[in-house]
C-alpha cells in the first residue's frame, strides 16, 4: 500500500517542500510480486494466515474501545464521540465498499488511551447496527485508529498508514482477494451497544434562551461575558459573550444574543467562534489567531478536533468526549449545542446548570447557593446569570479591536444596570402578532423573539433551533415520546409570554 504524489517535473528526488497533489492511501496491487499474479487467491490466503499469526501476538484492544451507539439515529446525533466514516456516508450515496448491506458508518473520534485503537459502527437502512455475527459487512473495530493517535510517530499510531497496515490490507488479503474472511472477522468482531450510554445535551439560541442538561428552560438577557459551562473534572471551560442585537423598526425592547463562544479543556488549544466585526460570517480563532478553512475543513489540534461544516457551523470535539457545535443562525445570533458524556455527571456548573438529573438545582450560584427553579422568573434568572460573569483573569476571549477592549477589558464584564425585563412591547402591532402566529406555529421561543424584536425572521430562527434541539434529544433516546406542544399560539394582540414552558425531557 502507499500513496502517489503528482508534482512538477522541475523538482528533484528527495527535494523538500515540493508542491504536489497526493492521492489517498490505497492498495497497490499492480506492484505485487510474481507469486500474486500466478495464484492471487492462494497468495492472499497465505498472507491472511500470516496476518492471523501476527495478530495472536499483539495486545488485545477490544475491551478498551467504546461500544457502538445502538441505532443509526444515535450514531449520527452523538457528534462529540463519533464522526461520519467517509468510506460509508449516507449523505454521499452510501457507497459502502467494505461494508455491503450498510448505508452509513461512523468512527470513534478519539483513539483508545493505551493502544491507540479505533471503533467503527455501521448501520442498515432500517437504522439498526450491522454486526459481523450476521453479515460479512458488519461493523469492524480497528487496531490502528484511522486518524492516528499521539504521539503519532510509531505504529499503530501513525495516521492513515497504521490503519492500513493493521486493518485494511488484512481485509484485502482475507476478504477481497481470498475466501478467508472468517479469519479476519474472528480478529475484528463487531462491538455491540451494551455499554453505550448516550450523552446529555444542552443548548442556547435566540434572545438568548438556555435549555440545560437537566431540562430547565430560561431566558437570560444580560450584556457581558459569562461562564456557560465549567467542569472541574476535565477543566472544560465554555464562555459566551452576549451583546445587543439589531431589531426591526418598531421593536421597543432591548434584544440580546450570543455573539462569541470561547472554549478550552485542560491544556488544549483555545478555540473561539464569533461573528466578524465587519461581517456576519463566522470567524474561528485558534489561540487568538484566525483560521482559514479554504483548504481543509477538519483539523487535528492540541487536545481537540475542529471541524467546519457546510454553511455556518463549527464543531469542536474534545478528548474527554465533550462536543460543542456553534452555528451562525442567519448572521443574527449564535446558536450553541453542547453534548457531554456521562463522565461529566455531577461535574458541571455555570449557566447550563448541574448535570445530575435534578433540574431544581440548575440555578446554582458560584457560591453553591441554589435558587428555587420552580418559582423563579425573569428577575431571578437575570440575577443568577449575572453572578456567572467571567473576569479578565479567567477570560478565554480575544480582544483584538478597540471596541472589544473598551467594552470588555477596560469596562465591566457584565452590565448590572441592563433591565431585567423580558416582557417585550406592551402593545405589539396586530399585524406582527398575526405574522408571528403564522411563522411560529405555537413555538414559545419563536413567538417571544418575533414580538420582542419585531422581526418574524428572528423568531423563525429560534423555532428552527428549538426543533433541531428537540430532534437531537429524540435521536439520542429513540423511542422516547416527545413532550406535548409547549404552548398554544395566541392570535390576539398581547405581549409575548416569557418562554419558560414545562421543562424539556432530560437527554
Automatic annotation (TrEMBL):
This is Sushi domain containing 2. Residues 494-507 have a biased composition (Pro residues). Residues 40-188 form the AMOP domain. The keyword Nuclease does not apply. Keywords: Disulfide bond, Membrane, Transmembrane, Transmembrane helix. Residues 200-396 form the VWFD domain. PROSITE patterns: AMOP (PS50856), VWFD (PS51233). One of its GO terms (cellular component) is membrane. Pfam families: AMOP, C8-3_MUC4, VWD. Residues 464-507 are annotated as: Disordered. Coiled coil: none annotated. PANTHER family: MUCIN 4-RELATED, SUSHI DOMAIN-CONTAINING PROTEIN 2. It is found in: Membrane. SMART domains: AMOP, VWD. InterPro entries: AMOP_dom, C8-3_MUC4, Epithelial_Barrier/Signaling, VWF_type-D. Its main location: membrane.
Amino acid at each position: 500500500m502507499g500513496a502517489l504524489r503528482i508534482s512538477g517535473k522541475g523538482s528533484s528526488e528527495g527535494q523538500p517542500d515540493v508542491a504536489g497533489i497526493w492521492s489517498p492511501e490505497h492498495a497497490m496491487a499492480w506492484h505485487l510480486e510474481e507469486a500474486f499474479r500466478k495464484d492471487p487467491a492462494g497468495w492472499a490466503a497465505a498472507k491472511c494466515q500470516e496476518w492471523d499469526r501476527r495478530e495472536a501476538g499483539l495486545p488485545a484492544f477490544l475491551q478498551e474501545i467504546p461500544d457502538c451507539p445502538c441505532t443509526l439515529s444515535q450514531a449520527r446525533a452523538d457528534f462529540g464521540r463519533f464522526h461520519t466514516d467517509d468510506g460509508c456516508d449516507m449523505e454521499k450515496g452510501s457507497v459502502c465498499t467494505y461494508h455491503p448491506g450498510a448505508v452509513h458508518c461512523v468512527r470513534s473520534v478519539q483513539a483508545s488511551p493505551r493502544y491507540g485503537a479505533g471503533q467503527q459502527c455501521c448501520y442498515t437502512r432500517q437504522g439498526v447496527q450491522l454486526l459481523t455475527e450476521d453479515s460479512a459487512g458488519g461493523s469492524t473495530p480497528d487496531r490502528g485508529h484511522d486518524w492516528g493517535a499521539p504521539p503519532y510517530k510509531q505504529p499503530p499510531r501513525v495516521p492513515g498508514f497504521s490503519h492500513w497496515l493493521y486493518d485494511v490490507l488484512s481485509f484485502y488479503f482475507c476478504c477481497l482477494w481470498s475466501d478467508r474472511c472468517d479469519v479476519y472477522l474472528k480478529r475484528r468482531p463487531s462491538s455491540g451497544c451494551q455499554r453505550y450510554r448516550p450523552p446529555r445535551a444542552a443548548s442556547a439560541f435566540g434572545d438568548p434562551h438556555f435549555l440545560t442538561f437537566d431540562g430547565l428552560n430560561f431566558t437570560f438577557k444580560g450584556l457581558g461575558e459569562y461562564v456557560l459551562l465549567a467542569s472541574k473534572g476535565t477543566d472544560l471551560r465554555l464562555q459566551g459573550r452576549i451583546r445587543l442585537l439589531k431589531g426591526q423598526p418598531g421593536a421597543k425592547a432591548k434584544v440580546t444574543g450570543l455573539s462569541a463562544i470561547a472554549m478550552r479543556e485542560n491544556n488544549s488549544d483555545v478555540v473561539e467562534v464569533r461573528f466578524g466585526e465587519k461581517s456576519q460570517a463566522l470567524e474561528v480563532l485558534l489561540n487568538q489567531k484566525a483560521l482559514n478553512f479554504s483548504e481543509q475543513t477538519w483539523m487535528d489540534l492540541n487536545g481537540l478536533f475542529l471541524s467546519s461544516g457546510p454553511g455556518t457551523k463549527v464543531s469542536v470535539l474534545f478528548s474527554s468526549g465533550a462536543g460543542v457545535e456553534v452555528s451562525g443562525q442567519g448572521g443574527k445570533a449564535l446558536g450553541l449545542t453542547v453534548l457531554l458524556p456521562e463522565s461529566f455527571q455531577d461535574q458541571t456548573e455555570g449557566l447550563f446548570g448541574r448535570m445530575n438529573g435534578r433540574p431544581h438545582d440548575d440555578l446554582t450560584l458560584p457560591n453553591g447557593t441554589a435558587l428555587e427553579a420552580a418559582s423563579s422568573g425573569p428577575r431571578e434568572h437575570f440575577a443568577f446569570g449575572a453572578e456567572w460573569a467571567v473576569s479578565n483573569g479567567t477570560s478565554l476571549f480575544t480582544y483584538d479591536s478597540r471596541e472589544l477592549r473598551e467594552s470588555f477589558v477596560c469596562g465591566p464584564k457584565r452590565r448590572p444596570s441592563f433591565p431585567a425585563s423580558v416582557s417585550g412591547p406592551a402593545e405589539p402591532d396586530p399585524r406582527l402578532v398575526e405574522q408571528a402566529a403564522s411563522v411560529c406555529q405555537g413555538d414559545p421561543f419563536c413567538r417571544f423573539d418575533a414580538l420582542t424584536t419585531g422581526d418574524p425572521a428572528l423568531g423563525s430562527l429560534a423555532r428552527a433551533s428549538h426543533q433541531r434541539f428537540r430532534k437531537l434529544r429524540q435521536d439520542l433516546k429513540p423511542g422516547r415520546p416527545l413532550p406535548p406542544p409547549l404552548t398554544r399560539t395566541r392570535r390576539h394582540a398581547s405581549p409575548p409570554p416569557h418562554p419558560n414552558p414545562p421543562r424539556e425531557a432530560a437527554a
